[in-house]
Design goal:
The structure is a homodimer. Chain A is mostly helical. Chain A has a single domain, classed as Monooxygenase, CATH 1.20.1280. Chain A contains four helices and no strands. The longest helix of chain A is centred in the C-terminal third of the chain and has 27 residues. Chain A is elongated, with a radius of gyration of 15 Å. Chains A and B meet through helix 1, helix 2 and helix 3 of A and helix 1, helix 2 and helix 3 of B. Chains A, B: This is MtN3 and saliva related transmembrane protein. Chains A, B: It is a multi-pass membrane protein. Chains A, B: GO terms for molecular function: sugar transmembrane transporter activity. Chains A, B: One of its GO terms (cellular component) is membrane.
Chain lengths: 95, 95
């Protein structure tokens, strides 16, 4: 029992950790220090985790990853928008 | 078999996604747009995932979370250093 609870606390922390990042990004609309490669790869990975959870009928994996995607899809959108609007920082596309 | 491979690809993506973020943060030494609450909570969650993996003897969870911590402990260190050095942004401590 104790071990399962640790897993749920861990999942809750790594999932809801992203909420303050989303709120900060929405408020400041500045994504300069956030890596494009990070947000795109991370969001792609979360999507694959969701597919994995669905295929395995694993509800905790499904729930945690839907929640995570609710935070990371908008963060990724804000980052891509930021890169496209700041033509000066095209080097971003490779970092 | 196919499903397990999806899990490994998902884990590889969500883990190594953080490498370009670490490299960017090390290069630019500017963490302004990254939320303190995010990095601290995320790193704490990863540590709990590692403990969970050890208690369950689950090697993929152990390996992925050790790798993630190798990226997120330095990112968290850089962020805390940034907040402490920029006394002007004390509001960061709550966002």
């Amino acid at each position: 029992m104790g071990i399962t609870i640790i897993g749920y606390i861990a999942g809750t922390l790594t999932t809801f950790a992203s909420l303050p990042q989303l709120l900060k990004s929405l408020k400041e609309r500045n994504m300069e220090n956030i890596s494009l490669a990070f947000v795109v790869t991370f969001t792609t990975g979360l999507t694959l985790w969701l597919i994995y959870g669905i295929l395995r009928n694993d509800y905790p994996i499904i729930v945690f990853n839907i929640l995570s995607l609710m935070f990371w899809i908008p963060i990724t959108y804000l980052k891509i928008k930021d890169v496209l609007e700041n033509k000066g920082s095209k080097s971003e596309l490779i970092t």
